[in-house]
Amino acid sequence: MPRTDSDTINLSASEAAEVATSALLYIGLDDEESETIAAHLVDCELMGYPALGLSRVLTIAEYPLTRQPRSPITITHETPVSARIDGGNHIGMYAIRWATEIAIDKAKAEGFALVGARNSFLSGRNAYYLDLIAEAGFVGLHLASGKPVVAPLGGAASAFGTNPIAFGMPHKPHPLIFDFATSATNYGALILASRLGHDLPEGVAIDADGQPTRDPVATLAALAGAILPLGGYKGSALSFAIQALGLLGGAALTHGESQDFGFLFIVFDPSLLMPAAAFQVHLDDLIARVKATPRLPGFEEIRIPSERAYAERERRRVDGIDLPLAIYDQVKSL
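Predicted structure:
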């Protein structure tokens, strides 16, 4: 049974999945879609990304596109090594999982795959898909453009999505994955802060007047404010590049707008370039050398990308997920 204190409730992974699946079914999703999305959300909670976890059930329920008609996911263009997918207005955590599996199947058959997708939204955590790709033995790159919520450098209004990019490589005991938004904070974190009444960190958002703000509501209000790009001109330029590459996924074909959701996967077998075992040896050597770097005062260790997340997942599988009661109660109320 769940354990509670004054602010949180502790759920096992299976309890969290049951709560999420039940709520998604009530929203109107079918069994397969609800279970697929719930698995994604629970994995985010296990890995320590609450802004992309069960609170996203509420975002799905509120999101305008959720209330629009859905159609079957289809492949609209295909070659032996490529495919472009129409997501049928299905939620991204379902449609982009579908695209991931197509990319893996093509990479198994041909050694390489290029897969784009459109007409979908709220795809969740890119690393989730890269984990599936890397566990299948492939190197992967995934990027996702979105509707405008992020200002370009010097802009007083939004022009980009949060536009994450992720890299994944097969490795033992767990894949090596790096996933980050090109915005100073992600959209899920903004929404979660507004639900919990928390302030944003300094320097990540502006309000409708273009002034710095820590108020998530001022940033979200009719999307009049904006999230700032990560790292100044570099993040802004990278975000533009991802928005442009999203067009190859078909972003502009959905609603006739270039600033829309578009998804792109590049997946390949490392043995196209060297024996997979040799790549693992070189990767192990690189990891060992990086972790052996002399440390600055205050740093106990040097971690590699995804090391913390996988360790956290193993811990939470045993200790459970601490979910804010405010979020749990709202999800249950669905």
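Summary: The domain at 3-62+313-333 is CATH 1.10.1530.10 (Hypothetical Oxidoreductase Yiak; Chain: A, domain 1).
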